[in-house]
Each structure stands twice: as C-alpha cells, then as structure tokens.
C-alpha cells in the first residue's frame, strides 16, 4: 500500500497535466475530543492546565499539551485553526467551524454527562448545529462577512469526521461484553451514514473520514476494564478491545464504499488512523518515544493514570494537596492524559497520514478533492 501511494505520488508529480491542489476554502469538522478545539470547554467548563502547555502556553480548549491532528491538518491547508461552533467569544468562522466536543458519540447517549462522562452533543446534535450554521450564514452574510464562510465554501470545503471511539468505550463502560458492543455497530454506523448523507444533501462533496484508534492501548481503557494478562498483545495492549476497534473500522470502511455508490458526486477519503497510531505505539523506541502506554500527565498506577483524578485535577498525596501535572518531557511521550495523545504523537501521526500513505484512496490531503487517477 505504501508503495502504491508512492507510485501514485510520483505519477502525480510527473503527470503532464499540472496537478492542482484543492485550495479548500474551509474545513467543517465533526467529532469527539480527538478533534475538539474548544467546544466542550465552551459548554461544560474549561480544560484545566497543564493542557495546552507545549504549544499554546495556556489551556486552549484541547485535551492535549498542544495541537491535535485537526490543527496540523488545517495548518497544512493554509487555514487558521478552527473555532468551535459553540464558542461565543473570539470565534472566526471564515474558514470553517468545528462541531466536535469531548465525549461525543455517534448515537445519542441515554444517560446524562454526569452519569456517563459522555457529551450530550452527539453527532446528530452536531448535524443540527451544522444545519443551523449553514442557514444562518446566508442570513448574516452581509453583516458578518469577515466572520462567516462564503456560500461556496460549503460546496468546496472539506468535511472531516473523527468519531466512534466513545460509542465503543461507552458500551464497554456500561459493562456490555465485546460481543454486545459489536452487535450495536450496525446501528451506530447507520446513524453515522444519515449525517454524512445530510451533509451531502446540503452540498458537501469532499469528505475525509478517520477510523477509530487502538483504544485497547489507552490507559483509561486498560485501567477501567482490568484486562487479564493472557489477553494482552506483545505491546501490552488489550487484544479483545483492539479487535473491537478493528471490527468497527472494517464496518466503517464497508460503509464508505456504500456511500461512494449512493453519493455519486462525493469524494470520500478513508484514513486508517488505527494503523498509524498502532505503528507509533508498537515501534515507539524506533521513533524516538518512551513508555508508549504511560500517561504523561497523570497520577499513579502502572500507567500513571487514575480513573478518579485526571490531568490538572487535585489529589491528596499523604495529606498534601497536589495538582496532577505534566511529565518532564512531553515531546518523547505518546499518551498525554491516559485518554488523549501528546502534540508530539499527533504530529507524528499527521506527518504519516498527510501524504495519503494510510488513506483509501491513497491521495494526499492537499489533493483530497480529486479522483484517484488510474
Ligand atoms: C509519507 O510520509 C512518511 C513520513 O514522512 C514517510 O515515512 C512515508 O514513506 C511517506 N509515504 C509516501 C508514499 O510518500
Ligand atoms: C437508548 O435507548 C433506546 C431505547 O431503549 C435504544 O434503542 C438505544 O439503542 C439506546 N442508545 C444507546 C446509545 O444505548
Ligand atoms: C477572520 O479571519 C479572516 C481570515 O483569517 C480574516 O480575513 C478576517 O479579518 C477575520 N475577521 C475578523 C473580524 O477579525
Ligand atoms: C460495572 O461493573 C462494575 C464491577 O462489577 C460495577 O462496579 C459497576 O457499577 C458496573 N457499571 C455499571 C454501569 O453497571
């Protein structure tokens, strides 16, 4: 696959017709904390420091010490970082909007955020918000032209999706078995499909869809589910949970193929984030990283992660109150807070997905508006 991508890239370079990059005027993102740039913070409380310390030097609404994949992506497209749709102050939506919030699922959760930790802003709600944004942008165009996208940005823009992880973990944390969660995947993806089709009906044509990562390697899953030794792979990740993620990803890929038939004018890039993240975790040392399964910002236990107190929280340590802070060198760590990734890990994954080598079809991000040339 890498070779194929390489050949394609060379063909594009050598092709007699000049290759025009897409010049996406905007990016509209849907997702969970993997791509939240301030949505949950605007609605449910600030993300505490030391989140943001490495790059923004302040808490910046992101669950990481720095930039997320979506930040590296828009940056490489020459666009500013995306404002969260929910952020009432300082937002500028000229080049897109971000509807993602930390803890979002595809299916609406049945329990409150307090009970489950899941965001009430599930994908269907993000879709309502997008539709409102789309309609109202036209209404306010004259007054706010320096703050909202031009109408053509909705048809020429890139629609990015990174969601599904919390549907899987949400089921597991309700004590459903892996097989029970697998059985819910068709319903989950059915609801995902509805939203993609709705964006298409509103004029969206270019889609960039991330699959779900190796959640069986994340401290919050490993700590909560208490996986027994026999079910770990050679890297210390939980096999049954990673198999669940891969099951979801296979079904997601099937769905993408279905959508390509049902939406003839859509160009959909499916990105294997699982494979990229897993290669980083399984070859951490080779790539200059340490302790691939340990949280940088956390407290206690085998993974430096405690389910009851997160990064930036307060903990009583022998009668002394301490703040759960960052590790010495986040730039050599992969996992940031037990759930999310460090800026360094995100940068590594970005640099490997941007040229299309983990994508189907294998075209670079800058060309994601073009059909693969045969
Ligand atoms: C894509 O980029 C990565 C990281 O720089 C590199 O290892 C890989 O060989 C590249 N693949 C292609 C097809 O250019
Ligand atoms: C919520 O409950 C309804 C009705 O029982 C069910 O159909 C749906 O699948 C549930 N959603 C989730 C996320 O479990
Ligand atoms: C919003 O961003 C665009 C592009 O970066 C810029 O041209 C515009 O002036 C900004 N609007 C305001 C009100 O600052
Ligand atoms: C899941 O099982 C654990 C251990 O038996 C229990 O403590 C927890 O309350 C259960 N969670 C739910 C949501 O039922």
UniProtKB/TrEMBL annotation:
Residues 1-21 form the signal peptide. Transmembrane segments: none annotated. Its EC number is 3.2.1.51. InterPro entries: GDSL (IPR001087), SGNH_hydro_sf (IPR036514), SGNH_plant_lipase-like (IPR035669). Gene3D superfamilies: SGNH hydrolase. The keyword Methyltransferase does not apply. Belongs to the 'GDSL' lipolytic enzyme family. One of its GO terms (molecular function) is hydrolase activity, acting on ester bonds. The gene is EST. The lineage of its organism: Eukaryota, Viridiplantae, Streptophyta, Embryophyta, Tracheophyta. The keyword Glycosyltransferase does not apply. Pfam families: Lipase_GDSL. Keywords: Glycoprotein, Glycosidase, Hydrolase, Signal. This is Alpha-L-fucosidase.
């Amino acid at each position: 696959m890498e070779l194929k991508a390489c050949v394609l890239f060379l063909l594009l370079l050598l092709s007699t017709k000049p290759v025009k990059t897409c010049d996406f005027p905007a990016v509209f993102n849907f997702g969970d904390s993997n791509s939240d740039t301030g949505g949950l913070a605007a609605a449910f409380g600030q993300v505490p420091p030391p989140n943001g310390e490495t790059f923004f030097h302040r808490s910046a609404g992101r669950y990481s010490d720095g930039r997320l994949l979506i930040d590296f992506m828009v940056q490489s497209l020459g666009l500013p970082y995306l404002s969260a749709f929910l952020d009432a102050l300082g937002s500028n939506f000229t080049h897109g909007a971000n509807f993602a919030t930390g803890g979002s699922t595809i299916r609406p959760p049945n329990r409150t955020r307090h009970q489950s930790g899941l965001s009430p802003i599930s994908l269907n709600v993000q879709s309502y918000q997008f539709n409102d944004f789309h309609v109202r942008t036209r209404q306010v165009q004259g007054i706010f032209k320096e703050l909202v996208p031009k109408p053509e940005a909705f048809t020429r823009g890139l629609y990015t999706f990174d969601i599904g992880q919390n549907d899987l973990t949400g089921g597991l944390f309700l004590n459903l078995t892996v097989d029970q969660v697998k059985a819910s995947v068709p319903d989950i993806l059915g609801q995902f499909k509805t939203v993609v089709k709705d964006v298409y009906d509103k004029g969206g044509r270019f889609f960039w869809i991330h699959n779900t990562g190796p959640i069986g390697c994340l401290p919050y899953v490993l700590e909560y589910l208490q996986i027994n030794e026999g079910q770990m792979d050679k890297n210390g990740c939980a096999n049954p949970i990673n198999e669940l993620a891969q099951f979801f990803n296979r079904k997601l890929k099937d769905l993408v193929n279905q959508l390509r038939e049902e939406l003839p004018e859509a160009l959909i890039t499916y990105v294997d984030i699982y494979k990229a993240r897993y290669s980083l975790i399984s070859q951490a040392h080779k790539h200059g990283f340490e302790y691939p399964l340990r949280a940088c910002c956390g407290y206690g236990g085998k993974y430096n992660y405690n389910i009851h107190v997160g990064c930036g929280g307060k903990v009583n340590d022998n009668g002394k109150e301490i703040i759960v802070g960052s590790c010495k060198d986040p730039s050599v760590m992969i996992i940031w807070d037990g759930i999310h990734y460090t800026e360094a890990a995100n940068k590594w994954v970005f640099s490997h997905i941007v040229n299309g080598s983990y994508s189907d079809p294998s075209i670079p991000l800058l060309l994601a508006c073009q059909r693969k040339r045969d």
